Every structure is written in C-alpha cells, then in structure tokens.
Amino acid sequence: MNTPLAIEVTGLTKSYRGRTALDGLDLRLAPGQIVGLMGDNGSGKTTLLKILAGVLAEWEGSVRVAGHAPGPESKATVSFLPDASFLPDAHRPADSIDLYARFFDDFDPSRARSMVEFFGLPWDRTLKEMSKGMREKLQISLAMSRRARVYLLDEPISGVDPASRDVILRGILSNFDDDALLLISTHLIQDVEQIVDSVLFLRAGSVLLHGGADELRAEHGMSLDALFRKVYTS
Amino acid sequence: MQIDDSRPIWAQLVDEFRRRIVAGEWAAGARVPSVRELALDLGVNPNTVQKALGEIDRLGLTATERTAGRFVTADESAVAGGRAALAEATADRFAAEARGIGMSLAEAADLLSRRWALHDDAPDATASREKPERKAP
Lengths: 234, 137
What we know:
The complex is a heterodimer.
Chain A: E1 7-16, E2 19-29, E3 33-39, H1 45-53, E4 60-65, H2 72-75, E5 78-81, H3 93-103, H4 109-118, H5 132-144, E6 150-154, H6 162-174, E7 181-186, E8 198-203, E9 206-212, H7 213-220, H8 224-233
Parallel strand pairs in A: 3-7, 3-8, 5-6, 6-7
Antiparallel strand pairs in A: 1-2, 1-4, 8-9
Chain B: H1 9-22, H2 35-42, H3 46-58, E1 62-65, E2 69-72, H4 76-100, H5 105-116
Helix pairs in contact in B: 1-3, 1-4, 2-3
C-alpha cells in the first residue's frame, strides 16, 4: 500500500479539566472511502473530529491529516462540518456562499449553488427563517462544495426527517470525490448503514471496533446497527 | 431493490445486477450505468457497487472496454448460464421450504403449476426507491 494515508493518528489523548475525552486513540484511514464514526454520547466522536479539523488544541499524541499536522496547511484541504450551526442568522444562502468563497480557496460556488437548488432551499429566506432541516442542508451544501481531500461531518443528519435524510445522503454521495476521505459521525447507524465502506466504533475515548461494513455483516450475520447495539450493551 | 442490512450489500448487488442482465433489463451488448449512477440510484456506497460490478465482470456477464465503459456481454451462452444459476438458486429455496413443511415432490410440483399463472405479470423488483423530495416543506 503506497497510497498516503488520509488520516494517521497515534496515541491521541485529550482531557478536559482532568476528564479524559480521548484515551490513547490510534487510527489509520486510507483515502477513497466513506467511514462511519459511531459511538454513544461522550465516546469522543466530536472531540476527535475537532482535533482532526484543527479547531481544538492542547492534546497529546501524533496526528497527521492529509499529510499535515493540524494547522493552516491541513485546514486548507480539510472540510469540517461542525454539529452546531455556525452561520449568522441573518444570512441568506447567497451570503453564506460568498462567505465560504472568501474563506476557502478550494470552494466551488457553482457546486454550492447547484446543491442549494438540488435541496430545494429558498434563496430569499434567512437562516433564522429556515427550518432545522433546511439549515442542515445549507451547511452540507457548503461543506461538500469544497474540493477537499478530507471531509469531516459531525452529525450532519441528526434531527431531520427520513425523506430529508435520503436527500442529504444523495447530495453527499453525488458531490464526494472518489479519492477523498469522508468521515461522518452519527449515533444513528441505520441512517448511514448503506453508504459507508467501513465503520469505527468509539467507546470511552478509544477505538472499540474498526472494520469493513460488508466484512462485519458477513462475520456477524447482522446489520451494523444491530452489531452496534450488541457491542455497546456487552 | 430492497436491501437487507444484515447481509453483505455487495453480494446482494451481484444478485441484483445478474438478475437485471438475465431478465434483459440490461440488454445484451448495452452499456451498463456508471458506478456513480448506480450508487445514487440504489442509495449505496460507490465502492460497494464497484466491487459487485467487478464480480459481474468475473462471471463473464459484463466486460470493461478501456475508454468506452462497461458493457453487457453479447455472448448468449454466458447470459443463459447466469439465468440457469439464478433459476437453480430460486428452485433450491422453494424446494428447501416445501420439504421443510412436509410436502412431497408431486404436491410441490402440483402447487407450482397451479400458482404459475398468478405471476404472469411479475412485479418489477427493481422499482426504484421512493423519489427524494425536491421542494422545501
């Protein structure tokens, strides 16, 4: 395997005021795949994504993302979608697209506009006037319209109805470059069950299980969702 | 197609693609849709589609031409072989279940011939998933 890894993490530890969020986590992910990051609340999913995105400091261990330590160089090629809304309430979609175009060299505004159209979002409404599902769709349109090497999506489909979920997944699938890495966190595995190449189960800040989706189904004879419930209750 | 999350998806895609070819939905010599089109249409991972199509290649039902893409074989014996394999698997499932509930071969054959006519307009098993919403709520 000569392909450079998209993510390479060794012995990553992060504590908040003495409470351990990540505990010596090791992780190696090749590009060209969609990886589901699963774990119960407090397992460290968001902390891991924030460190990979370069927005959280003061951790121990070794982290390489797209060949760089987290910082300006990695941020230029890593598209991070945080779980909380980060756009000003007064923005209409075109304002947010302009903002992204100013911030990110790899941002493709025409792709973002076509995703906004695909999602059927209203161009004349501000974020404040949009539903939660609409805001999620707008943020996904922005995050997926960067031509990044690594996409980090933190709970991108939490709290949307099933029809919206399918549309969002379709939007993600059709805008994802074959040689990029997409790491998508969720606590509802069934939402992403059919689109992931592999899954990563976190528990108490380290990797509990990491494997290919179909390999795990073949080995255990159950869905990833059922496997998740089984390993977390054992 | 309905995907069963408890079994490897790539193997289900192999069955589905093989079915499309032997049923003529993907006609002999026709171009196979791209990996991305199939992934979007079925709502599954593109690498999984790629792996399944590789297996369909290996079975001799499709072949990839360097620049033009992937085509269904024009070799009728390969398609006939695929149909025979699929038919056998279906017959095996029926035979196993019929024996499992204590039927004799004569009873099973009689039942099959009585039920046969009910299926002359078999539902389209490939009916696509529900259409995504296009309009904002």
